[in-house]
Amino acid sequence: MRIQVRRTGGFAGIERHAEVDTSQRPDAPEWRSLAEKALAASQGTPPAGVPDGFHYEITVDGHTVHAADPRLTDDQRELITRVLKEGA
């Protein structure tokens, strides 16, 4: 599974992008479960955010959804944080 996160917005407007390929990871089932929960709670079109808030584009195996602060679910926040931290 290939998970990509693109974060835009924020006070400085700096874009950040990261990607994780879980296919060879021993924790791949955990990533899959988290990604499925995060996608289920996301929207296909960019939601309205707040001024200076972050907007996220989450792509899992070619399927893209959108989310925005402050309306992230716990699963979305965890997935975004993990991908941005561990991804290349």
Summarize the structure in words:
The protein is of the alpha+beta class and 88 residues long. It has one domain (2-86). 30% of the residues lie in helices and 31% in strands. It contains two helices and four strands. The protein has helices spanning 28-40, 74-86, and strands at 2-9, 16-21, 54-60, 63-68. A four-stranded antiparallel sheet has the order 2-1-3-4, with helices on one face. A hairpin with a 6-residue loop joins strand 1 and strand 2. The chain is globular and about 40 Å long. The mean pLDDT is 90.
How many E-type strands? 4
Helix content: 25-40%
**Helical stretch count?**
2
Derived from helix and strand composition plus strand pairing, the structural class reads: alpha+beta
| Overall pLDDT metric | 90
Shape: globular
The tally of domains stands at: 1
Give Rg in angstroms. Answer: 12 Å
